[in-house]
Amino acid sequence: MQGTLDTLLSADGTVDPAALSLRDTTFVVLDLETTGGAPDGGGITEIGAVKVRAGERLGEFGTLVNPGERLPPFITVLTGITEAMLAPAPPIEQVLPTLLEFLRGAVLVAHNAPYDVGFLKAACARHGYAWPQLRVVDTAALARRALTRDEVPNRKLGTLAQFFGATVQPTHRALDDAKATVDVLHGLIERLGSFKVYSLGDAIEFGKAVTPAQRRKRHLADDLPHAPGVYVFRAADDRPLYVGTSVDIAKRVRSYFTASEKRARMSEMINAATRVEAVECAHSLEAEVRELRLIAAHAPPYNRRSKYPERVVWLKLTAEAYPRLSVVRQLAEDDAAYLGPFSSRRTAELAAAAVYDAVPLRQCTHKLSIKTKTPACALAELGKCPAPCEHHITPDQYAVSAADPFRTATYGDPEPLVEALLTRIESLSQRQRYEEAAVVRSRLVALLRAIVRMQKLRAVTSIAELVAARRNDEYGWEIIVVRHGRLAAAATSPPRLHPRPTLDLAMATAETVLPGPGPVPAATAEETERILAWLDRPDTRLVETSGDWVSPARGAARFTTLLTRAEAAGSRRESPVRSSVTDRSDDARSLRL
């Protein structure tokens, strides 16, 4: 059976048949006889079709077809069709125009429909006819779902025709079999009522491989709005099980109860769900943000992403005489420099390793005194640390050579760190130490990705208020008010009305946002990035802003191309010995801008 519900309009181009009741739907019940081979554009020997609506027969179509090939003897025995009968019959290319016209505006019904549809599609393709995007109902599939083994031993057409008391029994002739299928279809439609299946779209979905739980819980999608927003599946104790978002809540939730939903964890979730709650939103961006906040607040067990935003970590350059890097979970209002957020401690440590490769920052965790010396560690003996613990370097010298390059990179130019890492990669590559070069490259990617991301976030979170809008041809103007990177208000101005009153109301009623410390002072990084993606769209217009939305002239953004190429080089699978830096396109020289 055809697996998608493609849009099909009726003859006047106004009605979607999926929304029609089965009683009001026009069906063409079709059957083919063939030579028994594979569908290759030929092989059809007879076509029979009956057009019905509301139990009334509107027309019939029947013809023999010259297949243009020898007829196997067993087909003659089975159907009674002989080569002498087919010799004067028209070929399929002459039959197709009339048949396609007969099918226009109707829903195709067949028993074991993939077989018949496959032959017709192949014939259309072979002879240059466009196959219409017909909806297809398979009576065999419906019978498998609607009838039990106690009622019928199998789902053959003859068995079903006898069960439903068909007026015409199948004879392996196309028109007789089509007429028998009409009676089977009507019998199945009566049976579908007990499953609360009344529309064409529901009948098509019912015939697919839908689990009993999906079929039993389909009512949860009833009465949901056709609007953008967030939906929440809730358990019997009202716990949120799963949170999602869609531009059409009703349509999206309904898809969980169809054959297209095959995820095992979603099947488990549906079994536990007792109701679905909908939160309508002004537009898709507000829906995305509300989804993030709900997931963060409730951590639904069946959501995998965005569940624990509080678990992010930061790299902190401590504020002391000889600063060091520390992985922390919270931002403080101090003079320390921060880089992040990182999704895991491992990624933060990878970026820290890049810093250690680039500048002589100490790696010990002691709090050093400018008056009292501390014994040096092995790194000082290896020449990898300037030994501030033994006062071999003054605090000012240490700041210039080690701390300042990192501090500057967090808000300005990261070039000193990047150039040092590229030089190291090139040196290792020239000495054929490819694995070590690949390790340094992965550290460069982790560091540069974090710097580019944070500077992009800081550019918008530093603005106290930003108002933007974009035109939506269906809903009017979508409007957002952003304060310190947090969505403070969202609205939609109706079509054909000036958006200013709606915009003024949104600004007046927007959430008051008090910023905290760091580059994401009022929202999660993921929320601000969703807002940035919306703002970056070419059809978005900035309406008002309380400050300049700018990035540093020599900031990390200019290394975006380098980052993309380094990530691509690292993702390719190459020799573990030579790694990914052996090709000139991947070596350190080519990674430079």
Automatic annotation (TrEMBL):
PROSITE patterns hit by this protein: GIY_YIG (PS50164)
InterPro entries: DnaQ, GIY-YIG_endonuc, GIY-YIG_endonuc_sf, GIY-YIG_UvrC_Cho, Ribonucl_H, RNaseH-like_sf, RNaseH_sf, UvrABC_protein_C
Chain intervals with Basic and acidic residues compositional bias: 570-593
Entry protein name: DNA polymerase III subunit epsilon
Alphabetized SUPFAM superfamilies for the sequence: GIY-YIG endonuclease (SSF82771), Ribonuclease H-like (SSF53098)
PANTHER family xrefs: UVRABC SYSTEM PROTEIN C, UVRC/OXIDOREDUCTASE
Every GIY-YIG domain range: 226-304
Species this chain originates from: Winogradskya humida
